[in-house]
Design a protein that fits this description.
Blueprint (H helix, E strand, L loop, with lengths): L2 H4 L1 H4 L9 H8 L3 H14 L4 H18 L8 H14 L6 H17 L2 H6 L15 H9 L4 H12 L4 H5 L6 E2 L4 E4 L8 E4 L2 H13 L25 H14 L8 H14 L4 H8 L4 H4 L17 H4 L3 E2 L2 E2 L35 E7 L2 E6 L10
Antiparallel strand pairs: 1-2, 2-3, 4-5, 6-7
Helix pairs in contact: 3-4, 3-5, 4-5, 5-7, 10-12, 10-14
Length: about 375
């Protein structure tokens, strides 16, 4: 296939500014409207969410506009060339844009009974990345950054209740139980309901916010007038929430790559550091599998398994107030004369019987004798 075909998308101008990419494909690509409606019905019947339907349709629409043809009419060479084009355009083969394009093609091929094309699509490897987590100080700065009470309440729900972005968008006023200090999260991921607690500070913010907002169904209202499809409806848009979070992070001086989901990661990590068990955190997050929640064990810091660098113990002999036994001194290190005094370096077996300023041990290394002195009194014993 000629290179000119691959550059069609870059030269294409979406002149209909008030139309979404799906609407543009329906209007300009013959037969895409029928394919789109069929895709919508099939996604709904398989129990997938509306956002999944829109995601698949958006990526198929871009492919249709790229070739000015239905995605089902593309041969193997065209599909591979298009995927290669995406791979080179975006960061990696596992980038979300590339990944969801493949997922959209897979679903479409199964729907149309084109199993041969389905098998020819590349497999997607899962990246094993640890989540970005804010420190408690960064979280406080982020919560203090918004100038609007609406945004502070939004951040409070994302962090204080561990909500996903779309779950925060879907909150209605009857979902908030101020007497029990509980929030009813309706139809979360996997179409599951759950209850999460609301903190005292968040309850006060919600009371203040609801008292001044107009009487609407949704807790967070959007401005859908004049917007082009997508998630622009009576609710606050997902794009708007992400923009507000990133803007607030910049205002708070946070250099990490912060998104709305970062607050959910921070919620789980901080609860784990506070001592809440992993099973309870799984229920609060609405995870189906405990393996999904276990990732926070890799990012949380708590005293029971608090890590440290071995450089901290290589010469000092002390870790967090606990004396440790020294075993050797590296060949490259020579102690000065008179001998260096380290406090404390103890022989754990004779700690109780030692007297002050007695030599603890001597090492012979590279034909040199090294002496370690101790200023420990008999009352300083190992725990």
């Amino acid at each position: 296939m000629r290179h000119e075909t691959l550059t069609f998308a870059s030269k294409h101008i979406y002149h209909a500014k008030k139309r979404s990419i799906i609407q543009t494909a329906c209007a300009e690509v013959n037969g895409f409207s029928e394919l789109y409606h069929k895709l919508q019905r099939k996604v709904s019947l398989t129990g997938k969410s509306q956002s999944t339907s829109i995601n698949y349709a958006r990526h198929l629409a871009k492919a249709a506009i790229h070739f000015n043809a239905l995605p089902t009419a593309l041969d193997e060479e065209q599909v591979n060339a298009y995927l290669y084009y995406l791979q080179q355009t975006h960061k990696s083969a596992s980038d979300s844009y590339f990944k969801f394009t493949v997922y959209g093609f897979r679903f479409m091929y199964r729907m149309e009974g084109l199993e041969d094309q389905y098998l020819q699509l590349p497999s997607i490897k899962r990246e094993k990345k640890l989540p970005v987590v804010l420190s408690r100080e960064e979280t406080r700065r982020l919560l203090a950054a918004p100038k609007l009470l609406k945004h502070r309440v939004l951040f409070g729900l994302l962090y204080g209740c561990g909500l996903r972005c779309f779950e925060a968008r879907n909150i209605q006023l009857p979902d908030i139980d101020f007497d029990r200090k509980m929030l009813h999260v309706r139809q979360g991921k996997g179409k599951k309901d759950r209850y999460v607690p609301i903190g005292r500070a968040l309850c006060q913010w919600l009371n203040d916010y609801i008292g001044v907002k107009s009487n609407n169904v949704w807790l967070f209202n959007g401005r859908p007038n004049g917007r082009a499809g997508g998630d622009f409806d009576a609710r606050y848009s997902q794009r708007g929430i992400q923009w507000v979070v990133k803007h607030a992070a910049k205002q708070a001086g946070i250099v990490k790559n912060v998104s709305a989901h970062t607050l959910r990661h921070s919620f789980a990590t901080h609860l784990l550091e506070d001592g809440l068990d992993i099973v309870s955190i799984k229920e609060l997050l609405g995870h189906s599998r405990i393996e999904t929640t276990l990732i926070y064990l890799h990012v949380a810091h708590y005293d029971r398994v608090k890590t440290y660098s071995p450089l901290d113990t290589l010469y000092s002999g002390v870790v967090s107030g606990r004396a440790v036994r020294s075993t050797m001194i590296p060949h490259a290190i020579e102690l000065p004369s008179p001998p260096m005094r380290l406090n404390p370096v103890l022989d754990s077996e004779n700690a109780a019987a030692q007297t002050p300023c007695d030599c603890v041990a001597q090492w012979v290394c590279c034909n040199k004798t090294f002496t370690i002195y101790c200023e420990t009194t008999p009352t300083e014993q190992l725990p």
